[in-house]
Amino acid sequence: MDLQTEQHEDAIHITVAEARIDSAVAVRFKDRMREVSADGPRRVILDLRHVDFLDSSGLGAVVAVMKLLGPDRELELCHLTPNVEKVFRLTRMDRVFTIHKDCGTAFSGRQSVA
């Protein structure tokens, strides 16, 4: 699972450089997210701009990552493609996660747009 990370002052920005998060890669996604976000800043910004397909296993993996971070850390999402945004909206997970229109919004401190 190809994840690219960038440290910011108050957050870690993690970009998923894959087109799919599905049952075939869900476990690897969770494991890599655990590795790259361990002992990091309070905010974890997950950039999904390259992900065009997310199935229920992938959604479950994103939720599992949120739980792995614990109550003192926050998983925020940015740059959802239309297909991925639709999954979050239909499952009402858009009410669980802070979703930003783009990553600039996430780092500027403005409110979520989704």
Q: How large a portion of the residues is in β-strands, by DSSP E? A: 15-25%
Number of helices: 4
Spatially, the strands of the biggest sheet line up as: 1-2-4-6-7
N to C succession of SSEs = EEEHEEHEHEH
Cα end-to-end separation: 26 Å
Number of strands: 7
Characterize the largest beta sheet: strand count, sense, and whether it forms a barrel: 5 strands, mixed
Mean pLDDT: 92
The named CATH superfamily:
STAS domain
Anisotropy-based shape: globular
CATH topology: the name is Transcription Regulator spoIIAA
Structural class: alpha/beta
Q: Provide the number of structural domains.
A: 1
Q: Please give the share of residues in helix.
A: 25-40%
Question: What does this entry look like structurally?
Answer:
By secondary structure, this protein is α/β, with parallel strands linked by helices. Helices cover 36% and strands 25% of the residues. It has 4 helices and 7 strands; from the N terminus they run E-E-E-H-E-E-H-E-H-E-H. Strands 1-2-4-6-7 form a 5-stranded mixed β-sheet. Strands 3-5 form a two-stranded parallel ribbon. It is globular.
Topology:
Elements: E1 3-7, E2 11-16, E3 20-21, H1 26-37, E4 43-47, E5 53-54, H2 56-69, E6 74-78, H3 82-90, E7 98-100, H4 103-108
Parallel strand pairs: 2-4, 3-5, 4-6, 6-7
Antiparallel strand pairs: 1-2
Helix pairs in contact: 1-2
